[in-house]
């Protein structure tokens, strides 16, 4: 934190000096105009030329951690929702095949294009959507859900397999809208927030989501304990093995979120998918109702764990980019 002294000048005004590094970074000279946005106890200082033109927010990724399609899709989604205008990915290991995968992922999202791809460098440009309408997007998402429900009912009542297969296309459209809405929410919060407080605000929002998911996990475990009371041969139940594995995944989830550990978050997401498959394999016809309900609560726990894993993954990507940005700044020899 840089602390400056307030000075009284001219009998009616106060003055504070600006850091020379900040002045140079924003290419300011003596006589340039500065805009002051006064908000309660804080003042946001913005160079007028930036305030008028709209500053392009850029992010930089130096090296991808993995190259499989599943990881790349999750990674690019995490970058996309940050609300950046331009993302530069540099990695000498990017092959034409990897570039093709990234291109396919980018085409599945709204308002983002690859504007450069050569020599181990990919530049993604996100198009601004100043007329973005949250209510309109929510309305459209509701319409898609309604259409999915109606399509499933029609497919089941008419025994039309094709109608049921088409439900997947609705889900893809809804995913694209969800990612766009999430990205624009991040941008709007960033615009409304004081810049020095943005990282703290984003942490609070993520933490609020994680605590809510953990609370839902606790509720599910409570319900599970009620259902298993009526199950026979509880000591020999395969549900015990699932619970032990969930305990391990929960511990790894907490570490992945607390430490912003990208690889651990990826492992949690994959482990929850595997556990969901194991839980589903326990379902069979003729099972008593309490056993089936217990299985349902385990499924809910897995889904919530995966959601937290995705929050941890997104946070890890954000912190990785932030740390690389700090490293780049330290590498620049700037002196007062």
Give structural attributes.
single chain, 336 residues, alpha+beta, Pemi-like Protein 1, Chain: D, Translation Initiation Factor IF3, 3 domains, two-stranded antiparallel sheet, 8 strands, 61% helix, 12% strand
Question: Which consecutive residue ranges, at least 5 long each, have pLDDT under 50?
Answer: none
- How many helices? 11
Strand segment tally: 8
Largest sheet: 4 strands, mixed
Give the count of structural domains.
3
The strand order across the widest sheet is: 5-6-8-7
Task: Indicate the radius of gyration in whole angstroms.
Answer: 25 Å
Blueprint (SSEs and pairs):
Elements: E1 7-9, E2 13-15, H1 20-25, E3 34-39, E4 42-47, H2 48-53, E5 58-62, H3 69-80, E6 86-90, H4 96-107, E7 112-118, E8 121-126, H5 134-158, H6 161-165, H7 167-192, H8 198-227, H9 239-258, H10 262-281, H11 289-331
Parallel strand pairs: 5-6
Antiparallel strand pairs: 1-2, 3-4, 6-8, 7-8
Short description:
The protein is an alpha+beta fold. It is 61% helix and 12% strand.
Explain the overall architecture.
This protein has 336 residues and is an alpha+beta fold. It has three domains: 7-53, Pemi-like Protein 1, Chain: D (Ribbon), CATH 2.10.260; 58-126, 2-Layer Sandwich (Translation Initiation Factor IF3), CATH 3.30.110; 197-329, no CATH class. The chain is 61% helix and 12% strand. It has helices at residues 20-25, 48-53, 69-80, 96-107, 134-158, 161-165, 167-192, 198-227, 239-258, 262-281, 289-331; strands at residues 7-9, 13-15, 34-39, 42-47, 58-62, 86-90, 112-118, 121-126. The strands form three sheets. Strands 5-6-8-7 form a four-stranded mixed β-sheet. A two-stranded antiparallel sheet has the order 1-2. The chain has a two-stranded antiparallel sheet with strand order 3-4. A hairpin with a 3-residue loop joins strand 1 and strand 2. Helix 3 packs across helix 4, helix 3 (69-80) crosses helix 11 (289-331) and helix 10 (262-281) runs antiparallel to helix 11. It is globular and about 85 Å long.
């Amino acid at each position: 934190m840089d602390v400056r002294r307030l000075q009284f000048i001219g009998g009616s005004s106060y003055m504070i000096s600006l850091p020379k590094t900040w002045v140079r970074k924003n290419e300011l000279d003596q006589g340039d105009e500065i805009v002051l946005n006064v908000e309660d106890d804080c003042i946001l200082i913005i160079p007028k030329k930036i305030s008028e033109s709209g500053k392009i927010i850029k992010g930089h990724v130096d090296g991808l951690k993995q190259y499989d399609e599943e990881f790349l899709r999750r990674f690019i989604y995490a970058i996309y929702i940050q609300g950046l205008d331009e993302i530069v990915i540099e990695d000498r290991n990017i092959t034409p095949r990897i570039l093709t995968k990234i291109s396919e992922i980018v085409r599945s999202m709204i308002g983002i294009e690859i504007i450069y791809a050569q020599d181990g460098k990919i530049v993604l440009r996100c198009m601004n959507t100043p007329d973005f309408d949250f209510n309109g997007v929510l309305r459209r998402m509701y319409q898609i859900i309604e259409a999915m429900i109606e399509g499933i009912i029609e497919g089941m009542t008419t025994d039309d397999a094709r109608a049921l297969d088409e439900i997947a296309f609705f889900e893809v459209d809804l995913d694209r809208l969800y990612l766009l809405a999430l990205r624009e929410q991040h941008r709007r919060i960033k615009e409304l927030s004081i810049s020095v407080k943005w990282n703290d605000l984003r942490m609070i929002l993520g933490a609020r989501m994680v605590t809510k998911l953990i609370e839902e996990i606790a509720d599910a475990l409570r319900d599970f304990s009620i259902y298993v009371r009526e199950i026979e041969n509880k000591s020999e139940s395969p549900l015990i093995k699932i619970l032990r594995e969930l305990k391990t995944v929960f511990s790894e989830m907490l570490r992945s979120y607390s430490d912003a550990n990208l690889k651990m978050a990826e492992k949690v997401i994959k482990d929850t998918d595997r556990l969901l498959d194991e839980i589903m394999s326990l379902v069979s016809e003729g099972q008593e109702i309490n056993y089936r309900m217990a299985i349902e609560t385990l499924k809910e726990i897995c889904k919530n764990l995966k959601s937290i894993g995705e929050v941890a993954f997104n946070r890890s990507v954000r912190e990785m980019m932030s740390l690389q940005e700090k490293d780049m700044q330290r590498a620049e020899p700037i002196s007062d």
